[in-house]
């Protein structure tokens, strides 16, 4: 089917042919060199014991015909805190003259990667033995340096490129709130799985001037929780990237996590299942590569803002101190220590959180949204049901990434918030969030996304004809 892609590229308008994209990508291993503490599960009681697969940081730099630039960074990590993201973006921005809206960082949310900085602080950092905390600090510093280095390499490798996109399907994800794990195999056979899911597999392809495939960017909305072992692993997203890169050896495969906070790969807990799910997802990507794809016009527009999302039931400082001194729950105590450790000279706790919302308009067709936190699937389904600010005759796709720029907590929809449970608020303990989210947050986030996607393209400055 490769002839079909070449045929489609030949149909690009002359203006696009004369001014193609510039693109460059790079990757670097971020597998820890020593056995440090792992991320994702509170039941762990010792550091990693070995490696199943490498962990990777990867970057793609895109530059349109007008010179507007954006950097996508994907990480085989459970998440990063805004502190770490700020260090990364400040250094990249300074070196390459980029503003915050031009940089997006997404984490695959693998639960067999290392703990990083303040991310999930009460779950990891405050539970780690003192002698091992310096190892985590050193790893975070090395991580920032490595990410900046691959972005440098991506800029150095910029070359004329063609972009195309397509959309695949993969049915690995299961709504974990509405299906009992042990019942899933039978329910799947009977066609009776319950609850919303998002089985889309968005794919962005980057080919060089000779139409050789150089970068494959793809997403999926499902937790990377097949494995809970003490070995480094990218989980099923890692195996999916391996599958794609084995099929296309000259290309770098980059995975971004969608709104899969309430979605699990079920059944799970074996290496064989992680490999199987990765192969299924990788095959869905390959079907797009070998099938019908859409050309991407050379235009790029980026937006970024931080919303003050409101919290409710926020305690006083005195109440947090009392919890630290009296609770027998180690995670409640960990949250109290985490909050007090970050309080500084403040006398009260913040009742809002600076929540990152970003979006990129890539060509006429792609609207990519980047949301912070562990976002439940309701957001993707809601946002993808609209096509705000896009031409009526365009095959517009809205791609919604969670786990982007700051993984500070679960982000429940109003439905999930009212239902309660782990995603509805119980998980806030492990992230150090002092209260529960307000019912207002879903409409606030959706409203900001609609605003960004409807924003008109900036007009170029007038130049003198003299």
UniProtKB/TrEMBL annotation:
Name under which the protein is recorded: Neutral/alkaline non-lysosomal ceramidase
Entry keyword set: Signal
Occurrences of domain Neutral/alkaline non-lysosomal ceramidase N-terminal (ranges): 34-248
Signal sequence range: 1-18
A Pfam family reported for this protein in Swiss-Prot or TrEMBL: Ceramidase_alk
Domain of life: Bacteria
Organism for this UniProt entry: Rosistilla ulvae
Classification via InterPro entries: NEUT/ALK_ceramidase_N
Signal keyword on record: yes
């Amino acid at each position: 089917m490769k002839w079909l892609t070449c045929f489609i590229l030949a149909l690009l308008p002359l203006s696009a042919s004369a001014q193609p994209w510039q693109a460059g990508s790079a990757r670097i291993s971020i597998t820890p060199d020593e056995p440090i503490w792992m991320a994702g599960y509170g039941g762990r009681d010792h550091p990693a014991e070995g490696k199943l697969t490498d962990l990777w940081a990867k970057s793609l730099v895109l530059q349109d015909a007008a010179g507007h630039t954006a950097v996508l960074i994907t990480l085989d990590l459970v998440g990063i805190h805004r502190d770490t993201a700020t260090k990364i973006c400040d250094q990249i921005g300074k070196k390459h003259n980029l503003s915050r809206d031009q940089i997006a960082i997404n984490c695959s949310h693998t639960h067999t990667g290392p703990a990083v900085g303040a991310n999930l602080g009460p779950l990891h950092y405050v539970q780690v033995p003192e002698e091992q905390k310096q190892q985590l600090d050193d790893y975070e510093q090395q991580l920032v340096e490595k990410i900046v280095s691959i972005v440098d390499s991506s800029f150095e490798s910029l070359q004329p490129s063609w972009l195309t996109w397509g959309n695949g399907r993969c049915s690995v994800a299961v709504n974990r709130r509405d299906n009992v794990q042990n019942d899933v195999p039978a329910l799947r056979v009977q066609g009776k799985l319950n609850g919303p899911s998002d089985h889309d597999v968005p794919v962005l392809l980057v080919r060089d001037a000779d139409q050789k495939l150089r970068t494959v960017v793809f997403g999926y909305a499902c937790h990377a929780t097949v494995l809970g072992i003490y070995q480094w692993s990218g989980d099923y997203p890692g195996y999916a990237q391996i599958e794609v890169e084995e099929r296309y050896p000259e290309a770098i495969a980059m995975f971004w996590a969608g709104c899969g906070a309430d979605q699990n790969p079920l059944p799970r807990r074996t290496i064989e299942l992680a490999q199987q799910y990765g192969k299924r997802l990788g095959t869905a990507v390959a079907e797009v590569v070998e099938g019908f794809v859409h050309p991407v016009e050379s235009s790029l527009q980026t937006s970024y803002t931080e919303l003050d999302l409101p919290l409710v039931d926020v305690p006083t400082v005195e109440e947090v101190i009392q919890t630290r001194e009296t609770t027998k729950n180690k995670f409640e105590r960990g949250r109290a220590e985490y909050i007090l450790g970050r309080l500084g000279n403040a006398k009260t706790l913040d009742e809002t959180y600076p929540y990152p919302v970003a979006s990129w308009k890539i060509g006429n067709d792609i609207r990519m949204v980047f949301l912070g936190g562990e976002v439940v699937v309701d957001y993707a389904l809601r946002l993808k049901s609209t096509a705000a600010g896009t031409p009526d005759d365009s095959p517009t796709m809205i791609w919604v990434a969670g786990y982007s720029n700051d993984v500070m907590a679960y982000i429940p929809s109003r439905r999930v918030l009212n239902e309660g449970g782990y995603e509805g608020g119980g998980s806030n303990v492990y992230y150090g969030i002092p209260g529960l989210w307000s019912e207002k947050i879903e409409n606030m986030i959706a409203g900001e996304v609609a605003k960004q996607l409807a924003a008109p393209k900036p007009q170029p400055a007038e130049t003198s004809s003299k």
